[in-house]
Amino acid sequence: MQSPSKNYHTSNPEVTSAIDRDAPSHPVAQGLDEDDYFRSHAAPSYLSEVEAQVDQFVEHHIKTGKRIVLVTSGGTTVPLENNTVRFIDNFSAGTRGATSAEYFLENGYAVIFLHREFSLLPYSRHYSHTTNCFLDYMVEKDDKVEINPKIADEMLVVLRKYTQAKSSMSLLPIPFTTVNQYLYTLRSISEILKKIEDKALFYLAAAVSDFFLPSSRLPKHKIQAQPSGKLIVDLEAVPKFLRRLVDSWAPQAMIVSFKLETDNSILIKKATEALRRYHHQLVIGNLLQTRKKEVVFVTPNGDESWIRLTDDQDSSNAEIESIIIPAVIQEHDKWTVKWKAEKEPSN
Amino acid sequence: MQSPSKNYHTSNPEVTSAIDRDAPSHPVAQGLDEDDYFRSHAAPSYLSEVEAQVDQFVEHHIKTGKRIVLVTSGGTTVPLENNTVRFIDNFSAGTRGATSAEYFLENGYAVIFLHREFSLLPYSRHYSHTTNCFLDYMVEKDDKVEINPKIADEMLVVLRKYTQAKSSMSLLPIPFTTVNQYLYTLRSISEILKKIEDKALFYLAAAVSDFFLPSSRLPKHKIQAQPSGKLIVDLEAVPKFLRRLVDSWAPQAMIVSFKLETDNSILIKKATEALRRYHHQLVIGNLLQTRKKEVVFVTPNGDESWIRLTDDQDSSNAEIESIIIPAVIQEHDKWTVKWKAEKEPSN
What is the ipTM for the molecules in this complex? Predict the structure, then answer.
């Protein structure tokens, strides 16, 4: 009995019920919300360590002249009550973020990879979170461990890219788990990236919680011991910090957000709304059902531009991020031209 | 800039606040609760596939004569509303379960490893969920991928044990994600394990959700779109199926449960209460702070027996499961003797 072949994953959400349309729209965070949030929630204890790493990374790439993209990836958690063993989570393996990071690296960007701890990572993603476990890639030969020869050639290609990213100091992985860690780290990184102005790109693919439990209410908000033994959890909307990012944290950077829907008929509308609310440069819309085959770029001037894998590309297992990233970079080029024109008006 | 050394994990809970003592005690599930639960919640679509695998595994080990242990490991999730992208989760990496499974295998048991998908696995655990990513274990040499020579010898030892477990068909990994998947799979496996009577051991190390949202309420229980934009989640206690397991699903098997606390003064009391409620054979008590160094065995006759790593063992990084498992097996031996004596009274 070899490990039996397994034809199912237990962790995939159902497309038909994955998005709840009854959720109210959240208010856009204003200056006051930002102050309130960061005043009433403690920074992660390790934040200065992250800031030092990011600072060093950015200084290095000011010298190399590379553009820097911040890729966010994976889902944030919301701890419940004062009980940090139990938390609300968002389903996201981190596939879009980890895959995109690779194509940014291949296209000459330096990448800060702000990811949910233990979610998929660039390059290593090819060998984790699969039905194989780590040791399934290994064999013993002549009293030594070897990579299974069936996959060794392919792994060499991936390893070389990874080694190249490391040796050129072009990939900086930074983890988060909670939404609070995410928000603090995002703000810190943004403020450091200000230094490189329009050479910074934000590619916000993480699944950030909509609701959270304010820390001010943690001490008094314990489980309500009702006679029935029920648990009632009363959550508040997470302020939408994207507007603050655009206005204040990183006003010169190019910012890309994602909109995931299940209903094609409202995708463009939702993407356009997001641009109107947050004033950023690009929304990449996608449907849960087809997100690996097609996405739509929506920009503030009203353009909708679909990007699709051809049938040939699809059948040869091409990744749509190999097309998305060059198209995002084109938008970044345009942004840079526009920004420079605004900064230095022709005289 | 090599991957910067990282001195923190973002995903560990705080010991001081990890367990909420305000949570009410849950009712023990009775026959009716069981009927209600399984009647009102659909079985996972893949359950028959799992049952076929387990059946084949058990039939095989009826021939080899091995005892079989079901090790459960990792946390269960509770999907919220009809929105399966968002769920409540229990923090658990699966360390206790994955490590214990290895020592059961080394002590001659066959292991059904019922685990949270993508949590730690026996043997592969040594190389996953660490600060290293997969490719950090690889190097290129002479145009070939090789295991980093610094760790290759150690990996060979682990790979041999893993290969041995696979080639002797002694390890069957079965995944779950939601608490519903867990409960259905646990029941199915229990009923198949009835065949081997007292040769079955249940080692229940998974962190099972206390609260869930009954599927009967999913359609009508959507997010309440309050003017404030708040989310209210109203959960019910998960029926405690351990009693049903003991009474009805696997009455001849030896059953071990875990009790995790943060307060030493109530650990024994809580363990004793669990034995009284569920009528099983052994509770292994442990404190979050010291769980890798000491545990206590509590049995229905009132015995408390502490198992601790010696200072020498601790400083040489011995794993406490290397002592726990032989001690559990002794209890299993006693159970078998007792069971046989009850079944065949001396005449």
Answer: 0.80
